[in-house]
Amino acid sequence: MTTPGALYIVSTPIGNLEDITERALRVLKEVALIACEDTRHTRKLLTHYGINTPTVSYHEHNERERALELLGRLQQGASIAIVSDAGTPGINDPGFRVVRLAIENDVPVVPVPGPSALIAALVSSGLPTDEFFFGGFLPAKTNARRTRLGELRSLPATLIFYEAPHRIAATLKDAHEILGPRQAVVARELTKMHEEFARGTLPELSQRFASGERVRGEIVLMIDRAGTESEVIRDSAEHSVVEMVAAFENEGLDHRAALKKTARALGLTRAEAYRRLVAERNV
Ligand code: SAM
């Protein structure tokens, strides 16, 4: 029986071409075939490094059939590298299907680690890194996005999302309304010429990105965990629910609307805000 080749999961730069490891370059040179999300895109990287290994496309529309073909080659003894357009294959990019198929068929799977936008963004965000939740892309439609954010509201972890530039303003607005005034960071164009970190609370960032100016580039959005923000609120005497409700009522809102607005401002559900209102009144 032929010894199968290995399937290498090779990370590539997310912007700066220098961010590739010596091992990644050696593996890309030595394998029989490179399976690429977009062969033309990867060809630029390969040409830059003088690598002539044959390439084949492996993307979301041919992932199923292509995974079987790649498995066939691996079982015949060929070693194959998988790369995506940027960063780590399998992270919001094709890769998972062929990895699973390889494992099911006793083909060795070998990671060749390197950049991934979510890790680069997290470690430079200034938000806690000890526990985090990566949610990929949030749903594009408002209702589904708000529902998803609601599901994640009480997670004790930094929340990380990939986001499209034309949706960042709407997502920040929804995140503020659903999660409250937490700290957040918008990391844009990491490792590229116009790398930028916008840091602030969700309401501040929401206002900043709602200015109408067109946002460009690639974005990672990070939002502080539930606990931290609640502590800030708990520790702050200004955030008495009774006082906030009264203040909104003074502005002309009825009691129900005032409670709703207070809940939103404090990042609480209406039920939580009501419980705190009752508790404060009973002190
Ligand atoms: N596999 C990639 C990785 O490991 O990061 C992610 C691929 S996903 C299809 C592309 C998304 O990743 C972009 O829309 C953006 O949200 C994020 N991203 C990729 N490169 C980035 C960069 N240089 N700066 C900020 N975000 C980036």
Q: Quote the CATH topology of the largest domain.
A: Cobalt-precorrin-4 Transmethylase, domain 1
- The H-level CATH homologous superfamily of the largest domain, spelled out, is Tetrapyrrole methylase, N-terminal domain
Overall structural domain count: 3
Bound molecules: S-adenosylmethionine
Word description of this protein:
The chain has 283 residues and is α/β, with parallel strands linked by helices. It has three domains: 7-115, 3-Layer(aba) Sandwich (Cobalt-precorrin-4 Transmethylase, domain 1), CATH 3.40.1010.10; 118-226, Methyltransferase, Cobalt-precorrin-4 Transmethylase, Domain 2; 239-281, no CATH class. 43% of the residues lie in helices and 17% in strands. It has a five-stranded parallel beta sheet with strand order 3-2-4-1-5, sandwiched between helices. A five-stranded mixed beta sheet has the order 6-7-10-8-9, sandwiched between helices. Mean pLDDT is 92; it is low at 229-237. Bound molecules: S-adenosylmethionine.
Notable features of this structure?
alpha/beta, 5-stranded parallel sheet, 43% helix, 17% strand, 5-stranded mixed sheet, 283 residues, 3 domains, 10 strands, Methyltransferase, Cobalt-precorrin-4 Transmethylase, Domain 2, elongated, single chain, binds S-adenosylmethionine, Cobalt-precorrin-4 Transmethylase, domain 1
Annotate the secondary structure layout.
Layout lengths: L6 E4 L11 H9 L2 E4 L2 H10 L6 E3 L5 H13 L4 E4 L12 H9 L4 E4 L4 H7 L8 E6 L4 H11 L5 E6 L4 H12 L3 E6 L7 E6 H8 L9 E5 L2 H10 L5 H10 L4 H12 L3 H12 L2
Parallel strand pairs: 1-4, 1-5, 2-3, 2-4, 6-7
Antiparallel strand pairs: 7-10, 8-9, 8-10
The structure holds S-adenosylmethionine.
S-adenosylmethionine binds next to helix 5, strand 7 and strand 10.
